[in-house]
Amino acid sequence: MALASHPALSAEDRPATTPSVMPEPPIRPVELKPEPPPMPATAPALPDAPTPPERPAELTPATPTAPEPGPASEMPVPPPRPTDLSPSPPTTPALALTVTPADDTACRKRLERLGATFEPLPPISNGQCGAEKPLKLSRLSGGVVLNPAATLVCGTAEALARWTTEAQETAEQVLKAPIKSLSIGSTYECRGQNHDPDAKLSEHSFANGVDVMGFGFDGHGPIQIGAGLDGAPEATFQAAVRAKACLFFRTVLGPGSDAAHGNHLHLDERERNAGHRLCQ
Ligand SMILES: [Zn+2]
After folding, report:
1. Is 171 helix (H, G, I), strand (E, B) or coil?
2. Which pLDDT score is estimated for 195?
3. What is the whole-number distance in angstroms between the Cα of residue 194 and the centre of ligand 1?
4. What is the pTM of this model?
Protein backbone atom coordinates (compact mmCIF):
# COMPACT_ATOMS: atom_id res chain seq x y z
CA MET A 1 0.00 0.00 0.00
CA ALA A 2 1.00 3.57 -0.50
CA LEU A 3 0.48 4.18 3.18
CA ALA A 4 3.18 1.70 4.03
CA SER A 5 5.72 3.49 1.89
CA HIS A 6 4.92 6.90 3.30
CA PRO A 7 5.63 5.99 6.93
CA ALA A 8 8.95 4.56 5.82
CA LEU A 9 9.91 7.83 4.16
CA SER A 10 8.74 9.93 7.05
CA ALA A 11 10.64 7.73 9.47
CA GLU A 12 13.83 8.50 7.59
CA ASP A 13 13.01 12.17 7.70
CA ARG A 14 12.28 12.23 11.39
CA PRO A 15 15.89 11.68 12.42
CA ALA A 16 16.59 14.46 10.01
CA THR A 17 14.31 16.83 11.87
CA THR A 18 17.40 18.01 13.70
CA PRO A 19 18.51 20.63 11.19
CA SER A 20 22.15 20.46 12.18
CA VAL A 21 22.41 16.73 11.49
CA MET A 22 20.67 16.80 8.14
CA PRO A 23 22.55 18.31 5.22
CA GLU A 24 19.40 18.35 3.09
CA PRO A 25 17.71 21.60 4.27
CA PRO A 26 20.65 23.79 3.25
CA ILE A 27 20.72 22.10 -0.14
CA ARG A 28 17.26 23.15 -1.17
CA PRO A 29 17.95 26.87 -1.26
CA VAL A 30 20.98 26.25 -3.42
CA GLU A 31 18.91 24.26 -5.88
CA LEU A 32 16.22 26.88 -6.02
CA LYS A 33 18.68 29.34 -7.41
CA PRO A 34 18.83 29.38 -11.21
CA GLU A 35 22.59 29.18 -11.18
CA PRO A 36 24.01 25.94 -12.65
CA PRO A 37 27.43 26.13 -10.91
CA PRO A 38 26.10 25.67 -7.34
CA MET A 39 24.45 22.41 -8.35
CA PRO A 40 27.61 20.34 -8.88
CA ALA A 41 28.91 21.67 -5.58
CA THR A 42 25.87 20.33 -3.79
CA ALA A 43 26.27 16.84 -5.20
CA PRO A 44 29.41 15.96 -3.21
CA ALA A 45 27.87 17.48 -0.08
CA LEU A 46 25.07 14.89 -0.12
CA PRO A 47 26.71 11.51 0.22
CA ASP A 48 23.60 10.12 1.95
CA ALA A 49 21.10 11.11 -0.71
CA PRO A 50 21.63 9.16 -3.97
CA THR A 51 19.59 11.58 -6.08
CA PRO A 52 20.72 15.12 -5.24
CA PRO A 53 21.92 16.11 -8.74
CA GLU A 54 18.66 15.06 -10.34
CA ARG A 55 16.35 16.98 -8.10
CA PRO A 56 17.66 20.42 -8.99
CA ALA A 57 16.51 20.04 -12.59
CA GLU A 58 12.92 19.45 -11.54
CA LEU A 59 12.97 21.86 -8.65
CA THR A 60 14.23 24.86 -10.55
CA PRO A 61 11.34 25.09 -13.05
CA ALA A 62 8.71 23.95 -10.55
CA THR A 63 9.55 26.41 -7.76
CA PRO A 64 9.92 29.85 -9.28
CA THR A 65 7.63 31.23 -6.56
CA ALA A 66 10.20 30.75 -3.80
CA PRO A 67 13.14 32.91 -4.89
CA GLU A 68 14.34 33.68 -1.40
CA PRO A 69 16.63 31.09 0.13
CA GLY A 70 16.49 32.63 3.60
CA PRO A 71 13.17 31.20 4.82
CA ALA A 72 13.72 27.93 3.01
CA SER A 73 17.04 27.37 4.72
CA GLU A 74 15.47 27.82 8.12
CA MET A 75 12.56 25.56 7.33
CA PRO A 76 13.36 21.85 7.25
CA VAL A 77 10.08 20.97 5.49
CA PRO A 78 10.60 17.22 5.46
CA PRO A 79 7.27 16.11 3.86
CA PRO A 80 7.59 17.86 0.44
CA ARG A 81 11.10 16.65 -0.26
CA PRO A 82 10.38 12.90 -0.16
CA THR A 83 7.65 13.37 -2.76
CA ASP A 84 10.06 15.14 -5.08
CA LEU A 85 12.71 12.52 -4.62
CA SER A 86 10.57 9.59 -5.65
CA PRO A 87 9.83 10.83 -9.21
CA SER A 88 13.25 12.38 -9.80
CA PRO A 89 15.46 9.26 -9.73
CA PRO A 90 14.16 7.83 -13.05
CA THR A 91 14.67 11.12 -14.89
CA THR A 92 18.26 11.64 -13.81
CA PRO A 93 19.82 8.49 -15.28
CA ALA A 94 18.29 9.36 -18.64
CA LEU A 95 19.93 12.77 -18.53
CA ALA A 96 23.25 11.26 -17.57
CA LEU A 97 23.23 9.01 -20.66
CA THR A 98 22.82 11.84 -23.13
CA VAL A 99 26.33 11.25 -24.49
CA THR A 100 25.65 9.66 -27.86
CA PRO A 101 28.16 8.09 -30.22
CA ALA A 102 28.87 9.96 -33.40
CA ASP A 103 26.16 9.27 -35.93
CA ASP A 104 27.72 8.74 -39.33
CA THR A 105 24.49 7.73 -41.09
CA ALA A 106 24.41 10.86 -43.21
CA CYS A 107 28.10 10.47 -44.02
CA ARG A 108 27.58 6.91 -45.19
CA LYS A 109 24.77 8.02 -47.47
CA ARG A 110 27.02 10.65 -48.98
CA LEU A 111 29.74 8.07 -49.40
CA GLU A 112 27.29 5.83 -51.27
CA ARG A 113 26.26 8.71 -53.49
CA LEU A 114 29.92 9.33 -54.24
CA GLY A 115 30.02 5.85 -55.71
CA ALA A 116 32.24 4.30 -53.06
CA THR A 117 32.18 0.64 -52.15
CA PHE A 118 32.50 0.02 -48.42
CA GLU A 119 31.25 -2.08 -45.58
CA PRO A 120 31.02 -1.43 -41.85
CA LEU A 121 33.63 -3.01 -39.62
CA PRO A 122 33.20 -3.89 -35.94
CA PRO A 123 34.36 -1.23 -33.48
CA ILE A 124 38.08 -1.08 -32.87
CA SER A 125 39.30 -0.65 -29.30
CA ASN A 126 42.96 -1.05 -28.46
CA GLY A 127 44.08 0.94 -25.45
CA GLN A 128 44.02 4.59 -26.45
CA CYS A 129 43.61 3.64 -30.09
CA GLY A 130 40.37 2.75 -31.77
CA ALA A 131 37.36 3.78 -33.80
CA GLU A 132 33.70 3.34 -32.97
CA LYS A 133 32.45 2.96 -36.50
CA PRO A 134 35.24 2.11 -38.90
CA LEU A 135 34.55 1.24 -42.50
CA LYS A 136 36.37 -1.00 -44.92
CA LEU A 137 36.68 1.14 -48.02
CA SER A 138 37.61 -0.92 -51.06
CA ARG A 139 36.61 1.05 -54.15
CA LEU A 140 35.88 4.61 -55.19
CA SER A 141 33.91 6.21 -57.98
CA GLY A 142 35.05 5.39 -61.48
CA GLY A 143 36.18 1.92 -60.48
CA VAL A 144 39.24 3.20 -58.60
CA VAL A 145 40.42 0.28 -56.49
CA LEU A 146 42.07 0.80 -53.12
CA ASN A 147 44.98 -1.54 -52.89
CA PRO A 148 44.70 -2.77 -50.22
CA ALA A 149 41.28 -1.80 -48.84
CA ALA A 150 41.42 1.01 -46.27
CA THR A 151 40.11 0.94 -42.70
CA LEU A 152 38.83 4.47 -42.10
CA VAL A 153 36.10 6.31 -40.25
CA CYS A 154 33.44 7.66 -42.55
CA GLY A 155 34.53 11.29 -42.55
CA THR A 156 38.04 10.41 -43.69
CA ALA A 157 36.71 7.92 -46.25
CA GLU A 158 34.50 10.66 -47.64
CA ALA A 159 37.41 13.08 -47.85
CA LEU A 160 39.41 10.45 -49.72
CA ALA A 161 36.52 9.84 -52.11
CA ARG A 162 36.07 13.54 -52.84
CA TRP A 163 39.78 14.14 -53.25
CA THR A 164 40.10 11.19 -55.62
CA THR A 165 37.34 12.61 -57.79
CA GLU A 166 39.39 15.80 -58.09
CA ALA A 167 42.58 13.82 -58.67
CA GLN A 168 40.77 11.98 -61.46
CA GLU A 169 40.20 15.26 -63.29
CA THR A 170 43.85 16.16 -62.88
CA ALA A 171 44.94 12.78 -64.20
CA GLU A 172 42.85 13.13 -67.32
CA GLN A 173 44.06 16.68 -67.92
CA VAL A 174 47.74 16.17 -67.19
CA LEU A 175 48.35 12.52 -68.01
CA LYS A 176 45.47 11.81 -70.39
CA ALA A 177 44.92 8.66 -68.40
CA PRO A 178 42.31 7.86 -65.74
CA ILE A 179 43.27 6.70 -62.25
CA LYS A 180 42.38 3.05 -61.75
CA SER A 181 43.90 2.39 -58.34
CA LEU A 182 45.32 3.98 -55.24
CA SER A 183 48.27 2.31 -53.58
CA ILE A 184 47.44 2.52 -49.88
CA GLY A 185 49.98 2.40 -47.05
CA SER A 186 48.87 2.78 -43.44
CA THR A 187 45.23 3.37 -42.64
CA TYR A 188 44.23 2.22 -39.17
CA GLU A 189 47.35 1.49 -37.15
CA CYS A 190 47.84 1.96 -33.41
CA ARG A 191 51.09 3.89 -33.18
CA GLY A 192 52.71 7.22 -32.43
CA GLN A 193 53.30 9.84 -35.06
CA ASN A 194 56.07 8.89 -37.51
CA HIS A 195 56.21 5.44 -35.86
CA ASP A 196 57.77 7.07 -32.77
CA PRO A 197 56.36 5.25 -29.72
CA ASP A 198 57.08 8.29 -27.55
CA ALA A 199 55.28 10.71 -29.85
CA LYS A 200 51.68 11.78 -29.72
CA LEU A 201 49.33 9.19 -31.19
CA SER A 202 49.04 9.38 -34.95
CA GLU A 203 45.65 9.94 -36.52
CA HIS A 204 46.18 6.47 -37.93
CA SER A 205 45.43 5.30 -34.39
CA PHE A 206 41.84 6.45 -34.83
CA ALA A 207 41.27 5.26 -38.41
CA ASN A 208 41.34 8.94 -39.24
CA GLY A 209 44.37 9.03 -41.50
CA VAL A 210 45.47 7.42 -44.75
CA ASP A 211 48.84 7.15 -46.46
CA VAL A 212 48.66 7.21 -50.25
CA MET A 213 51.80 5.67 -51.71
CA GLY A 214 50.97 6.06 -55.36
CA PHE A 215 48.51 5.81 -58.24
CA GLY A 216 47.78 3.28 -60.90
CA PHE A 217 46.33 4.34 -64.28
CA ASP A 218 44.67 3.00 -67.33
CA GLY A 219 47.07 3.69 -70.19
CA HIS A 220 49.88 5.14 -68.13
CA GLY A 221 52.52 3.63 -65.89
CA PRO A 222 52.05 3.80 -62.12
CA ILE A 223 53.25 6.85 -60.23
CA GLN A 224 54.85 6.45 -56.83
CA ILE A 225 54.78 9.46 -54.54
CA GLY A 226 58.25 10.92 -54.27
CA ALA A 227 60.65 13.31 -55.81
CA GLY A 228 60.03 13.48 -59.55
CA LEU A 229 61.53 15.28 -62.48
CA ASP A 230 60.53 18.91 -62.36
CA GLY A 231 58.38 19.79 -65.28
CA ALA A 232 57.51 16.19 -66.10
CA PRO A 233 53.77 15.51 -66.31
CA GLU A 234 54.10 13.02 -63.46
CA ALA A 235 55.60 15.71 -61.21
CA THR A 236 52.91 18.16 -62.26
CA PHE A 237 50.26 15.57 -61.43
CA GLN A 238 51.76 14.92 -58.01
CA ALA A 239 51.99 18.58 -57.14
CA ALA A 240 48.44 19.23 -58.30
CA VAL A 241 46.80 16.39 -56.42
CA ARG A 242 48.80 17.21 -53.31
CA ALA A 243 47.57 20.80 -53.41
CA LYS A 244 44.01 19.63 -53.93
CA ALA A 245 44.29 17.33 -50.92
CA CYS A 246 44.47 20.40 -48.73
CA LEU A 247 40.89 21.20 -49.73
CA PHE A 248 39.61 17.93 -48.31
CA PHE A 249 41.96 16.98 -45.47
CA ARG A 250 43.03 18.97 -42.44
CA THR A 251 46.51 17.51 -42.60
CA VAL A 252 48.55 16.90 -45.75
CA LEU A 253 52.18 15.84 -45.49
CA GLY A 254 54.45 14.48 -48.19
CA PRO A 255 57.90 14.63 -49.73
CA GLY A 256 59.73 17.62 -48.37
CA SER A 257 57.55 17.89 -45.23
CA ASP A 258 59.97 15.75 -43.23
CA ALA A 259 62.01 12.60 -43.56
CA ALA A 260 59.10 10.37 -42.57
CA HIS A 261 56.92 11.43 -45.50
CA GLY A 262 59.34 11.23 -48.40
CA ASN A 263 57.52 8.46 -50.24
CA HIS A 264 53.83 8.99 -49.56
CA LEU A 265 51.11 11.52 -48.93
CA HIS A 266 49.85 11.42 -45.38
CA LEU A 267 46.25 12.67 -45.28
CA ASP A 268 44.22 12.96 -42.12
CA GLU A 269 41.36 14.74 -40.45
CA ARG A 270 42.96 15.74 -37.16
CA GLU A 271 40.90 18.40 -35.41
CA ARG A 272 42.80 21.55 -34.56
CA ASN A 273 41.95 24.71 -32.69
CA ALA A 274 40.11 27.30 -34.73
CA GLY A 275 39.96 24.95 -37.71
CA HIS A 276 43.67 25.31 -38.48
CA ARG A 277 45.06 23.05 -41.16
CA LEU A 278 48.50 21.66 -41.74
CA CYS A 279 49.22 21.65 -45.44
CA GLN A 280 52.87 21.15 -46.30
ZN1 LIG B 1 50.45 8.62 -42.29
Report:
1. helix
2. 86
3. 7
4. 0.64
